[in-house]
Write a sequence for this structure.
């Protein structure tokens, strides 16, 4: 009898599909999602040889033409597909020193998207806006204040916050499902159910806010990448001659 039962169990296991349990599948999905941003960033790092050449040209630059030459080397990396924050910061700084304020501002904005509002980026961005507008005390756009949660954090951190919101949201929902509903005449909510609601609420908020933030950054980067090759870098002297 026992042998027959064991044989029947073995046959049932052999016919059962070899799928991972839901919890394991969820963990694998989360690990894959966390690995994707890092892999994407690794594929977009600049070529080491050209990067070193550009850094050396930047370090030895003294005139606007020298800085423009360094900027063109950095821009070669951008044309080759590199998208790192330090690359755009160096490109924007070189263009700023060359006197090309408009393109410097565009490059520094892309650096800000990748690295967040670091003091160095904000300082150079202010200088670029001041040079472009001709107002020494020109402030940063108001969006940097009203949307500080978007501009202040780096793209990588915002992706992590998005994934954290996704995880918290589903953990809250799962905890809510396994928590008995309120009972009794007063129908008081248990602490565990209240905690589940809190997790789901915070997770949903993070998911909504930083999901939109990351999506908006992706759209902006796609637009800039598409039209970046049309930009023409010019030194300060050429900009002054073109100004009526």
């Amino acid at each position: 009898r026992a042998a027959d039962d064991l044989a029947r169990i073995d046959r049932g296991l052999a016919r059962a599909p070899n799928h991972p349990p839901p919890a394991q599948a969820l963990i694998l999905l989360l690990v894959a999602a966390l690995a994707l941003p890092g892999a994407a960033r690794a594929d977009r790092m600049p070529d080491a040889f050209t990067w070193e050449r550009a850094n050396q040209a930047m370090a030895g630059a003294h005139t606007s033409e020298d800085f423009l030459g360094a900027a063109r080397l950095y821009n070669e990396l951008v044309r080759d597909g590199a998208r790192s924050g330090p690359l755009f910061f160096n490109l924007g700084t070189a263009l700023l020193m060359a006197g090309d304020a408009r393109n410097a501002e565009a490059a520094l904005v892309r650096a800000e998207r990748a690295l967040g509002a670091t003091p160095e980026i904000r300082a150079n961005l202010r200088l670029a806006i001041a040079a472009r507008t001709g107002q020494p005390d020109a402030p940063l756009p108001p969006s940097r204040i009203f949307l500080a949660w978007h501009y202040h954090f780096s793209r990588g951190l915002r992706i992590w916050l998005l994934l954290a919101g996704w995880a918290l949201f589903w953990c809250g929902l799962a905890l809510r499902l396994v928590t008995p509903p309120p009972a009794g005449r007063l129908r008081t909510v248990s602490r565990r159910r209240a905690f589940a609601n809190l997790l789901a609420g915070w997770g949903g908020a993070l998911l909504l806010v930083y999901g939109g933030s990351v999506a908006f950054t992706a759209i902006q980067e796609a637009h800039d990448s598409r039209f970046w090759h049309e930009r023409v870098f010019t030194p300060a002297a050429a900009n002054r001659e073109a100004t009526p």
Remarks:
- The chain has two domains: 49-141+229-242, 155-222.
- Residues 114 and 155 are 5 Å apart (CA to CA).
- The two ends are 101 Å apart (CA to CA).
